[in-house]
Design goal:
It is built from no helices and 13 strands.
Length: about 190
């Protein structure tokens, strides 16, 4: 991935059209950040569905659509991932409920996160596709899942392209994270 990097408490930019950034726990002095690059093969991404090749889940890790931490609003969603129209609910993992829209991230090495930054779906005139009622699950082994948190993400039309923070209180390293939408802002497509 193009701009996957760890920072602050280390930031991995994973852009989901709901773009997101995991912030890992590392020692930090308040005047600077420790940054480390994550290798391109460091995260495997699986999505519930994909609208088309141009809205691929690969946009979740390739840096598409972000400039100076502001997300674009490409009218064709060429820098974003989103689901097929009227997606059918499916399970992202055994033991996790079925959702119409979800994205699963499997890490090659366990990671600790203190927060996830989410740039919600910001497609021009179609921000209602963005996740609303959102659940974040974690696993330390890729098999046993637990709820990390639940959040309501704002409609991207109200964020000026900026990210929303989801705090993660789990202290042990995670091998996998699932972000799932219970609802969006009113569209038949999720992203």
């Amino acid at each position: 991935y193009n701009s996957v990097m760890a920072a602050s408490t280390s930031k991995i930019i994973l852009i989901l059209a709901l773009y997101l950034s995991f912030l890992c726990n590392f020692a930090q002095v308040s005047t600077f950040r420790i940054v480390r690059n994550i290798p391109p093969g460091g995260i495997k991404i699986t999505a519930s569905s994909t609208f088309g090749d141009d809205q691929s889940a690969s946009h979740l890790t390739d840096g598409s659509g972000l400039r100076d931490n502001i997300q674009d609003n490409n009218g064709f969603a060429l820098t974003m991932w989103h689901t097929s129209e009227i997606p059918v609910a499916s399970k992202p993992a055994k033991g996790v409920p079925a959702y119409k829209a979800w994205v699963r991230f499997d890490f090659s090495v366990p990671e600790k996160f203190s927060k996830i930054l989410v740039w919600n779906h910001n497609q021009e005139k179609l921000t209602n596709r963005g996740f609303r009622s959102t659940l974040v699950y974690g696993s330390s082994n890729g098999t046993d899942w637990f709820l990390l948190t639940r959040a309501e993400l704002p409609d991207a039309k109200n964020t000026d392209g900026k990210a929303s923070e989801i705090s993660i209180t789990q202290k042990k390293p995670l091998t996998s994270v699932i972000i799932a939408a219970e609802s969006n802002w009113g569209s038949s497509v999720y992203g």
